[in-house]
Amino acid sequence: MLKVAVLVSGGGTNLQAILDAVEAGTITHAQICAVISNNPGAYALERARKKGVEAVCISPKDYETREAFHEALLKKLQSVGAELIVLAGFLVVIPEMLVRAYPNRIINVHPSLIPSFCGTGFYGLKVHEAALSRGVKVTGATVHFVDAGTDTGPIILQKAVEVREGDTPQVLQRRVMEQAEWVILPKAIDLIANGKVTVTDGLAHISQ
């Protein structure tokens, strides 16, 4: 049983999709061992508690240095026995020390088809604003492994979503979440939990 820790900063809609998938049996051989947020007011923590999952706030504001915060985060992940870390709307830059501790064991969902609209500064509504201002007809979401760069790790899954005439960033954000993020993030966790994802030469491969 793969122990999964989910890191979140806000409402936790992606977390809810994961919790629902575990309950429905579409994620197998995995259990959510902890939900950690940098934000004490994150509703995601309440979502976790409702499902009986340990919910913890580790905020950088509670530590004198960024390094101390990073060490506390790593210590907590190790103490709950996390084997896979899922970034589900976690608005904190992941330090290299964490990437080194969990090589190809940290995944992130990004609300675009990488390499479009990704990298430093592209998060939340900013991604959808950029997609609309560029006039793309198709956008989507990507689940990828986290490496030392920003949105540069091996791509595991992608799903395309139609951009419609009259879309606002908020409307597009919701469609991307519903049609892509909430679909491919649980699927990626299931694939990893069942040993179907490998990484060679910087590329992720999925076996049937």
Automatic annotation (TrEMBL):
Active site, renumbered: H110
Binding site for N(1)-(5-phospho-beta-D-ribosyl)glycinamide: G12, T13, N14
A GO CC annotation given for this chain: cytosol
Pathway the protein acts in: Purine metabolism; IMP biosynthesis via de novo pathway; N(2)-formyl-N(1)-(5-phospho-D-ribosyl)glycinamide from N(1)-(5-phospho-D-ribosyl)glycinamide (10-formyl THF route): step 1/1
One example of a Gene Ontology biological process annotation: 'de novo' IMP biosynthetic process
Reaction catalysis annotation: N(1)-(5-phospho-beta-D-ribosyl)glycinamide + (6R)-10-formyltetrahydrofolate = N(2)-formyl-N(1)-(5-phospho-beta-D-ribosyl)glycinamide + (6S)-5,6,7,8-tetrahydrofolate + H(+)
Molecular-function GO terms, alphabetical: phosphoribosylglycinamide formyltransferase activity
Domain of life from the UniProt record: Bacteria
Site (described: Raises pKa of active site His): D151
Keyword Transferase: yes
Residues that coordinate or bind (6R)-10-formyltetrahydrofolate: R66, N108
Keyword tags: Purine biosynthesis, Transferase
Domain Formyl transferase N-terminal: 3-184
Annotated Pfam families: Formyl_trans_N (PF00551)
Enzyme Commission number(s): 2.1.2.2
InterPro entries per record: Formyl_transf_N, Formyl_transf_N_sf, GART
The protein's enzyme class: transferase
Similarity-based family: Belongs to the GART family.
Function (record text): Catalyzes the transfer of a formyl group from 10-formyltetrahydrofolate to 5-phospho-ribosyl-glycinamide (GAR), producing 5-phospho-ribosyl-N-formylglycinamide (FGAR) and tetrahydrofolate.
Protein's UniProt name: Phosphoribosylglycinamide formyltransferase
